[in-house]
């Protein structure tokens, strides 16, 4: 692969869903879940790119488009310079091997009737990773130990006998066996215990270096994105509103929506007495989407007349740091 060529590239990708509609399709609505989204994951060195947004921002739709579970309404998704649709048509097995996924819900990932060893052995068989039973078993033991799972405790167990954290880390052991080039991780820690999240994230960072593997990390949690990611893309109602180095996006947020997200991160203050429930700024604004112009214009404290009329392009306000906002024009 040409190292300058992106590993993954989305060019002007739009996904429109048709919702509802009875006989004669009266009442049918069109939902633009992803709106002319363009970004690239470079091919030269492994990188974790966080795709951040609240629920309904289009981030999981983007994951499903990349995995080929949905087709774009317009635009194109390229993997190693070639349309994903063409990969799935003529090189499906290779694409499935090189682009792996970790879904949010570890409970639904596994066949409840398969023991741990069978889950991993199926991968070895499917991709021809071992030449004998014994070699396959050695690979399973090694991959589990590398992730910090004890085969002597877990082999022989069914998925429901593992904790949520163990189930997600078993996905990482599976990834270690497959050695993909890209992992799409869709909210992988949101359903596991808070105290176990950092173990999973450390494992993921370790795999990034060990396998030279890139990751598209999808999350609503800016703290996690900041911790794990090199680059960050902020989505608002299906539109990219900001992108750049993760530290820069969180530390020096440009877009008013990103600033709102950053302000909503709860910061523990030991001097403050705890009274009642935790107050987090309400950032939910579905239903407030502007009909035209900037998607954030109905909630933006800086909105100007032009914001209601034109869609702001992504503007490079600092080197490598872009925001879709007229404040930087
Ligand atoms: Fe606010 Fe206008 Fe910038 Fe949109 S383009 S975020 S409305 S200032």
Structural commentary:
With 329 residues, the chain is α/β, with parallel strands linked by helices. The chain has a domain at 247-265 and 280-329. Helix content is 35%, strand content 22%. The protein has 13 helices and 12 strands. The chain has helices spanning 59-66, 84-90, 92-98, 106-109, 116-126, 133-147, 151-154, 164-178, 194-211, 222-228, 246-251, 256-263, 305-309, and strands at residues 8-19, 29-41, 48-52, 74-79, 82-83, 99-102, 182-186, 214-219, 231-236, 239-245, 315-318, 321-323. An 8-stranded mixed sheet has the order 6-7-8-3-9-10-12-11, sandwiched between helices. The longest helix has 18 residues, at 194-211. It is globular and about 70 Å long. The model is unreliable at 276-283 (pLDDT under 50). The structure holds iron/sulfur cluster (SF4). Iron/sulfur cluster binds next to loops.
């Amino acid at each position: 692969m040409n190292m300058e060529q992106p590993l993954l590239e989305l060019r002007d990708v739009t996904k429109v869903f048709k919702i509802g509609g009875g006989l004669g399709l009266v009442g049918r609505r069109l939902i633009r879940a992803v709106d002319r989204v363009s970004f690239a994951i470079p091919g030269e060195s492994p990188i974790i790119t966080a795709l951040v947004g609240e629920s309904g921002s289009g981030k999981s739709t983007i994951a499903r488009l990349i995995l080929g579970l949905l087709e774009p309404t317009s635009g194109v998704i390229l993997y190693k310079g070639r349309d994903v649709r063409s990969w799935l048509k003529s090189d499906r097995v290779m694409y499935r091997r090189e682009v792996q996924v970790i879904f949010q819900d570890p409970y639904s990932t596994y066949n409840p009737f398969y023991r741990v060893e069978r889950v991993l052995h199926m991968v070895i068989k499917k991709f021809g990773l071992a030449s004998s039973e014994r070699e396959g078993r050695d690979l399973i033991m090694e991959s589990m130990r590398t992730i910090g799972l004890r085969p002597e405790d877990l082999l022989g167990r069914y998925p429901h006998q593992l904790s949520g954290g163990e189930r997600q880390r078993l996905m990482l052991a599976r990834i270690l066996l497959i050695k993909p080039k890209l992992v799409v991780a869709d909210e992988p820690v949101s359903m596991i215990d808070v105290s176990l999240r950092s173990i999973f994230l450390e494992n993921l960072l370790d795999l990034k270096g060990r396998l030279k593997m890139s990751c598209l990390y999808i999350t609503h949690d800016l703290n996690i994105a900041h911790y794990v990611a090199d680059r960050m893309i902020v989505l608002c109602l299906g539109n990219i509103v900001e992108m750049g180095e993760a530290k820069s996006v969180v530390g020096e947020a440009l877009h008013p929506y990103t600033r709102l997200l950053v302000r909503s991160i709860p910061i523990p203050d030991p001097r403050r007495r705890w009274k009642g429930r935790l107050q987090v700024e309400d950032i939910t604004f579905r239903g407030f989407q502007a009909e035209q112009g900037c998607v954030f214009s109905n909630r933006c404290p800086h909105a100007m007349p032009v914001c209601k009329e034109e869609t702001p392009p992504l503007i490079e306000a600092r080197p490598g740091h872009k925001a879709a906002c007229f404040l930087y024009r």
